[in-house]
UniProtKB/TrEMBL annotation:
The entry's keywords: Antibiotic resistance, Carboxypeptidase, Cell inner membrane, Cell membrane, Cell shape, Cell wall biogenesis/degradation, Glycosyltransferase, Hydrolase, Membrane, Multifunctional enzyme, Peptidoglycan synthesis, Protease, Signal-anchor, Transferase, Transmembrane, Transmembrane helix
GO biological process per UniProt: cell wall organization; peptidoglycan biosynthetic process; proteolysis; regulation of cell shape; response to antibiotic
Protein known as: Penicillin-binding protein 1A
Cellular compartment(s): Cell inner membrane
Domain of life of the source: Bacteria
Primary location group: membrane
Species of provenance: Paucidesulfovibrio gracilis DSM 16080
GO molecular function: penicillin binding; peptidoglycan glycosyltransferase activity; serine-type D-Ala-D-Ala carboxypeptidase activity
Catalysis: reaction(s): [GlcNAc-(1->4)-Mur2Ac(oyl-L-Ala-gamma-D-Glu-L-Lys-D-Ala-D-Ala)](n)-di-trans,octa-cis-undecaprenyl diphosphate + beta-D-GlcNAc-(1->4)-Mur2Ac(oyl-L-Ala-gamma-D-Glu-L-Lys-D-Ala-D-Ala)-di-trans,octa-cis-undecaprenyl diphosphate = [GlcNAc-(1->4)-Mur2Ac(oyl-L-Ala-gamma-D-Glu-L-Lys-D-Ala-D-Ala)](n+1)-di-trans,octa-cis-undecaprenyl diphosphate + di-trans,octa-cis-undecaprenyl diphosphate + H(+); Preferential cleavage: (Ac)2-L-Lys-D-Ala-|-D-Ala. Also transpeptidation of peptidyl-alanyl moieties that are N-acyl substituents of D-alanine
InterPro entries the record matches: Beta-lactam/transpept-like, Glyco_trans_51, Glycosyltr_51/Transpeptidase, Lysozyme-like_dom_sf, NA-bd_OB-fold, PBP_transglycosylase, PCB_OB, PCN-bd_Tpept
Organism taxonomic ancestry: Bacteria, Pseudomonadati, Thermodesulfobacteriota, Desulfovibrionia, Desulfovibrionales
TM stretches of this protein: 7-26
Residues in Glycosyl transferase family domain copies: 58-230
């Protein structure tokens, strides 16, 4: 009896001691535990998604590629597959699976080190979000305590949702939705049982079990997961067998961030970071809705690419990319090029190696393909004389003068072989060094449906549409003439187009010239703008004063360092294309310009609107002045330097711009519903060669773009405001040796129109009303 009492006392004491020890261990482990309730406010790093105007995805921004999804947005097999692989007893335990821990303890004891953890899904969440990944018994104890607490705070479904969105599954994919897109090109809801099981096999070692890296190992893990699901009774043997036999097709869901609209997306990214900061943009799962129109954007990119390629070809053939005998890396680039014949279409570009060359053609190899480049496609390889416009060397008639064996060149597919034929027909291509930009703005709203900042975003991320400051040349002249019309001149005012010399403060001499290096005598403002005469523009600027011109430019939102001399009238102040486009909206808008809008709305991860943009406008000039300039720029399109645009057959207004030595070429053109600006030039400014002017280089790009989108707009003319009178003005233009009588219908502000005299024909005007500016005439201007 005494022995029994002794044993009872001993057992009680040991129990109390064990309980005390366990309590002490619990208090010790709990002393510095993080607040587990933070998990209930689950805010993982999520992908910010940028949408175009039609609701399509323009691109993504993220640090961790993760898309938040609920359980009901997943295939029903997906949670089951992960539970089978990671925690089959998930719905039976309270955060800690003691049997799993005991098994792991035995394994670790046998190996002499911490090799297996036996963690439940709840413990994995705790470790991932609150603790470190260091393997130790202290961390395991903390993990177990927090897991138990969490199980009593959240539902099983909430815990499982967090786990499936948080877990890393390789290939920069966090959570099951990102993984489904990365491995199978699907959403989590559209996965098959076989695909669910393969994803569920990844958490143990995402890199090792990745189906992209080792498909056989991934298949083994899939087999294990399906076996576990069957053992738990969650799938039938038939379902397991069918899943095992299903062919797995690996496919990445395309990431539009590097496709059409990459320059547009980059500008949106810069705007978002400036407004919200990097962490908010890359981690908070914003939804950003833009004004980018996919049709406009695709047309703009295609037009700019082709225009830059044509400009490069007009400068002749600079030679191949290199020769494989001299540069082994070129051969590596060729071998790395993915060439799938069935996916290749006419017009696609490929890198090719010349295997043989004769007078009539070059034989080439493109991956598994063989083909020829006929000498006829090399006609552009003639060497132009960059100093004399349209002066070319004789026509290329021998392919051996262009390429040699082993040369690596760019080609485009001209013809696919017919059934039974082997060789493909290619055209020789040239990747241009010259760059450019295109920007479109809707004058009414300021929305930007298209923005392209260069030839290829993958080659250069520098956005010339918003970052490159270039001289607009004659494209600045409409601003000068708007000041003239507000200071007593009319479209019929006559100004001398003759030589003029200015002495600068430093003693140097400035002799401005017209583009064609000719003088035309007396010209009206109408003709001077239509024909883009520099000397008339300078005299006009001298008359009204350069300060008024600079003030007008600043009032129109132009951000530039304006020179305090008359060169400012010829566009010597550097501006960005988007900046000039926004200033130009003052004309189709009837006197006010509108700020460009790329981002229309931003929502947080819960769909709550946190930003919405509205048009921001600035009144600068009168509707009458705006219409007069608009009318004159329509004349530029009809009879002047922009007449190529007549091919569109619509009411259009525009102005070309070309700087000294053809360093920069511009065309700014608009209709009432859309304004588009195009710029072309080298990043390190230098001559593009004789003839590379706004009308021949920038305008064709503008036309190609507008051809693709004009059909979406009804025919619309510019609206004439009150206070404008369209009147015939007749007067003489030219030099004394060649004066000729001209007659134009021109827009006048009411009260300034020509007055017919009784001594002349009704269609003529009296000398005093001809528009000759007596002040300019007296001063020799």
């Amino acid at each position: 009896m005494k022995i029994l009492k002794y044993l009872l006392y001993t057992a009680t004491a040991l129990t109390i001691l064990a309980a005390g020890s366990f309590y002490g261990l619990y208090r010790w482990a709990s002393a510095d535990l993080p607040n587990f309730t933070e998990i209930t406010d689950y805010t993982p790093a999520l992908v910010t998604t940028v949408y175009d105007k039609q609701g399509g995805v323009l691109g993504y921004f993220y640090h961790e590629k993760r898309f938040l999804v609920r359980l009901d947005e997943m295939n029903k097999w997906l949670p089951m597959a992960f539970l089978a692989a990671e925690d089959a007893a998930f719905y039976d335990h309270e955060g800690v699976d003691l049997m799993a821990i005991f098994r792991a303890f035995l394994i670790n004891l046998k190996s002499g080190r911490v090799k297996q953890g036996g963690s439940t899904i709840t413990q994995q969440i705790v470790k991932q979000l609150l603790l470190t990944n260091v393997k130790s018994y202290e961390r395991k104890l903390k993990e177990a305590i927090l897991a138990y607490r969490l199980e009593n705070y959240l539902t099983k479904e909430e815990i499982l949702t967090i786990y499936l969105n948080e877990i890393f599954l390789g290939s920069n994919s966090y959570g099951v939705e990102a993984a489904a897109r990365t491995y199978f090109g699907k959403h989590a809801l559209d996965l098959t049982l076989a695909e669910c099981a393969m994803l569920a096999g990844l958490p143990q070692a995402p890199s090792r079990y990745s189906p992209y890296a080792n498909f056989d190992l991934a298949k083994d893990r899939q087999r294990y997961v399906l076996g576990q699901m069957h053992e738990q009774g969650w799938i039938t043997e038939a379902e397991r067998q069918e899943a095992l036999e299903q062919e797995i097709v690996l496919k990445r869901m395309p990431d539009p961030s590097w496709g059409t609209g990459a320059y547009y997306l980059e500008e949106v990214r810069r705007w978002l970071i400036d407004k919200y900061g990097k962490n908010q943009v890359y981690e908070r799962g914003l939804s950003v809705y833009t004004a980018c129109d996919p049709k406009h954007q695709a047309a703009a990119e295609a037009a700019l690419r082709e225009g830059l390629e044509n400009s490069a070809k007009r400068r002749g053939w600079p030679g191949p990319l290199g020769n494989v005998d001299e540069d082994p890396q070129l051969l590596q680039r060729l071998e790395a090029q993915e060439v799938v014949p069935d996916d290749i279409a006419a017009g696609d570009w490929l890198m090719a190696m010349v295997t043989d060359v004769s007078k009539s053609k070059a034989q080439i190899k493109v991956g598994p393909l063989t083909g020829t480049i006929p000498v006829s496609s090399m006609s552009w390889c003639r060497k132009p004389n960059l100093r004399q416009r349209a002066s070319w060397a004789r026509k290329i008639s021998d392919a051996r003068k262009v390429v040699g064996k082993g040369d690596v060149v760019w080609v485009s597919v001209k013809e696919r072989p017919e059934q039974g034929e082997k060789d493909w027909i290619f055209d020789l291509e040239l990747e241009p060094e010259v760059q450019g930009a295109l920007v479109s703005i809707v004058p009414e709203t300021g929305e930007v449906p298209a923005l392209v900042g260069g030839y290829d975003y993958m080659r250069s991320e520098y956005n010339r549409a918003t970052q490159a400051r270039r001289q607009p040349g004659s494209a600045f002249k409409p601003l000068v003439y708007s000041v003239a019309l507000d200071n007593g001149m009319t479209p019929a005012t006559l100004v001398k187009d003759t030589a003029i010399v200015f002495e600068n403060e430093d003693g140097s001499v400035w002799r401005p010239e017209n583009y064609a290096h000719r003088f035309y005598g007396w010209l009206s403002l109408r003709t001077a703008l239509v024909k883009s005469k520099n000397l008339v523009t300078i005299r006009v600027a001298h008359k009204v004063g350069i300060q008024k011109i600079i003030e007008r430019a600043k009032a129109l939102g132009l951000e530039a360092d304006f020179p305090q001399d008359l060169s400012v009238a010829l566009g010597s102040a550097s501006v960005t294309p988007i900046n000039l486009c926004s200033a130009y909206t003052v004309f189709p808008r009837g006197g006010s310009w509108v700020e460009p809008r790329l981002v229309l709305e931003v929502q947080d991860v819960w769909g709550e609107q946190i930003y919405s943009s509205e048009p921001v406008t600035h009144e600068v000039i009168s509707p009458q002045t705006a219409y007069q300039i608009c009318y004159l720029m329509q004349e530029v399109v009809q009879q002047g330097t922009g007449r190529r645009a007549r091919v569109l057959g619509r009411p259009l207004a525009g102005k070309t711009g070309t700087t000294n030595d053809e360093r920069d070429a511009w065309f700014m053109g608009y209709s009432p519903y859309l304004l588009t600006g195009v710029y072309v030039g080298f990043d390190e400014p230098r001559s593009m060669g004789a003839g590379e002017a706004g009308s021949s280089t920038a305008l064709p790009i503008w036309i190609d773009y507008r051809k693709e989108i004009e059909e979406d707009y009804p025919l619309q003319d510019f609206e004439q405001p009150d206070g404008i009178v369209i009147s015939r003005a007749s007067f003489e233009e030219g030099s004394r040796d060649g004066m000729r009588m001209v007659s134009y219908f021109l827009p006048f502000k009411e009260g300034t129109q020509p007055v017919p005299t009784p001594t002349t024909n009704p269609g003529s005007t009296a000398p005093g009303a001809q528009g000759v500016d007596d002040d300019l005439l007296k001063q020799g201007f």
